């Protein structure tokens, strides 16, 4: 029975790994992997194109969450939304980039745990509000920031949104992942209450909060050090 | 009448068509024809995807990827307000600027929770199969109207600003889409089975701790390869979780499932394959290093993964 497993399709995975390691354009890497996987699975060119086409139409819902908010967000940015967000956080004396992001992490994770996953997100919250506010908080504390520290704060803002979302949403009992786990266990003849799956996620959710919050506190120290280095060099 | 996801496919198709046309007539874009062709093809696939033969859709997707991969997709230099004018506008509008920005998530949440079961003439008001996306689409339209009303700008200016953001992200906009296609192809070609075969055949599972570690690390690794925890879960739960952890070591299936899925999420934080979480934000935040978000996440993801192994080991037999 074991010999029945076809290992050739793994070549597609190899293409992905090599492509990303060589830093080739990711879109090209993905399409090359599609081609190699199709050939390895002994598909004809026509079947492969049809499979790709069907999959492409089926996944058209994915980019909507990114594309739909852009007009409103872009317009507000043009008329000063980011400036306003920065001015607002500049008035809070105790604010630091790390503390602000810890508050956001808590808000994102707890609202996601209540099923309110769409309260955050990269186009709607991180780009117009969270990242500019984190940058402004650091700037109010330290004065002008080196460019690489600005990038670092932005990347941490995006990371905080992801971590809050991932480790929050999975303890909401009606979330898709819980439904998926429940269905798969049921198919294997194991009956589990979905509520128990959600509850047993809580220890990890708390651990994730503590670990990422710790890293965000270290971010403040990193910013202070980098600003000091910059001043020393100048 | 039901507001369905197809309506928003048309809306996004029109937006992408506008992006294509604006780039085509913009002489500040160094590759305006290929750029317009790229966004025009994407618009076509949203507006008329169902009407095309499947093989043609596949071929157009490859065409788009080649245009993007060989540097054919560039940005123009749209006219922004001068910084002084923008700051004056921020001071004039004050905190009212936050209203449309917060309306967007607010309307989304109201749609996805309160309006979920509302019916009109026997039909659901919002497409129940895509309730979050349809609600967000409504939120985006409401927010755009509110933003136009507040700033006295036209919706066309909103489309111009959307084009500025789409241009800045360039091909990163379509990367999650193409990777999702690859994910579906992977499962069709049996990549999951092959990986599960390798992990379970060549790794000894003769101590509870090693079995737990293989299960959690396998979840993360598999997700790094596939870019999606939902693809990893059935494979690792079916290959190790259920037969070994539950079957041999008597683990509580709820604990095995919950912590297993969270281990997969640690993998999501570390892979460029999860482009919509990791690569798109880097483009959206205009970071020069496309892997900057992944780099920011690894120091959290790895300790959480290790913690998961210990949590599962100590909690599974409680």
Automatic annotation (TrEMBL), chain B:
It comes from the Bacteria. The keyword Heme does not apply. Keywords: Membrane, Transmembrane, Transmembrane helix. Pfam families: DUF979 (PF06166). InterPro entries: DUF979. The chain crosses the membrane at residues 6-25, 55-76, 97-115, 130-153, 165-187, 207-225, 232-251, 257-280, 292-316. This is Putative membrane protein. It comes from Massilia aurea.
